[in-house]
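Anyone up for a design puzzle?
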């Protein structure tokens, strides 16, 4: 049986690249795209359902942790809890072409202190909303030899399906970086390569560049470059150890509604996990841990994140 290698779609955006921002909006970034990893080239479809828990409760500046209010800001960020559901659909047309669609649902709670004319006002938001959908097409070049690995290109769009005007019960508008959607259409371009490690194990690498095509309502998210390096190590026919390293560079947001001083940075995470496979159904779980986090200004980060999900082929 073909080894299990994947981790569910994180944010098609294809995956879920942590959208690191001052107030702490986030998705995990794990690759589960079968066409990228070379594990499935026969025509057919796959449906994924994934859950992510990310508790961003640590203020950080540069590469060091600080306490809330150590560096006075207009908003002293306290905590953001992200509970994300990501629904994905992937269809493979044959050995070369495939396409994937992902729709995130973000359940998010955020709190901060608003420093306003000498007063310290506690503000909070709690909402569950649909986020921005992503659709990505991929083309795999035919390898010259059966075991020489697979490589290809990917291209797509992030669509403005999520709201960017969510308010709390006091009718205060959430910061744009906290909103479930950016309001922008983003272009997604990238490439991938996969190969064998011995008889059963698999390794792959995947790089993507994402950029908003235009500003929307005085806001434009920063460009993002993501590189993922992953491997699968089967230990039985139906079980495998999974490992991915994720590196991201994100530019500052721009526009009059953005907070450029407190957005963007560079990040490196490691994600060990396990996968269990039946005839058509697979179950997986990951823990994502930071190895390096350098943020601009003051931002909230998480010490760990949890990912679990299942996938069904038909």
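Challenge accepted. My sequence:
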């Amino acid at each position: 049986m073909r080894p299990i290698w994947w981790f569910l779609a994180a944010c098609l955006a294809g995956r879920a690249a942590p959208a690191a921002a001052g107030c702490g909006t986030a998705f995990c970034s794990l690759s589960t795209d079968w066409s990228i990893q070379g594990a499935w080239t026969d025509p057919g479809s796959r449906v994924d359902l994934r859950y992510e828990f990310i508790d961003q409760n640590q203020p950080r500046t540069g590469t060091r942790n600080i306490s809330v209010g150590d560096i006075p800001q207009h908003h002293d960020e306290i905590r953001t809890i992200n509970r994300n559901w990501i629904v994905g659909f992937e269809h493979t047309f044959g050995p070369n072409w495939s396409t994937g669609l992902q729709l995130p649902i973000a359940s998010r709670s955020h709190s901060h202190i608003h420093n306003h004319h000498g007063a310290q006002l506690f503000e909070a938001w709690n909402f569950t909303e649909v986020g921005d959908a992503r659709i990505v097409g991929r083309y795999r070049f035919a390898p010259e030899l059966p075991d020489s690995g697979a490589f290809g290109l990917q291209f797509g769009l992030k669509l403005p399906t999520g709201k960017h005007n969510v308010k709390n019960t006091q009718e205060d508008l959430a910061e744009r970086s906290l909103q479930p959607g950016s309001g922008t259409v983003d272009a997604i371009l990238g490439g991938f390569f996969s190969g064998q490690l011995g008889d059963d194990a698999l390794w792959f690498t995947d790089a993507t560049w994402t950029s908003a095509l235009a500003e929307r309502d005085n806001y434009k998210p920063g460009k993002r470059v993501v590189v993922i390096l992953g491997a699968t190590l089967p230990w039985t026919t139906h079980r495998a150890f999974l490992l991915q390293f994720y590196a991201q560079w994100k530019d500052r947001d721009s526009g009059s509604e953005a907070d450029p001083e407190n957005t963007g940075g560079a990040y490196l995470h490691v994600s060990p996990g396990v996968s269990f496979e039946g005839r058509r159904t697979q179950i997986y779980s990951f823990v994502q841990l930071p190895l390096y986090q350098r943020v601009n200004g003051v931002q909230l980060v998480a010490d760990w994140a949890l990912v679990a999900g299942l996938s069904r082929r038909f």
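A detail worth pointing out: Residues 1-21 have pLDDT under 50 and may be disordered.
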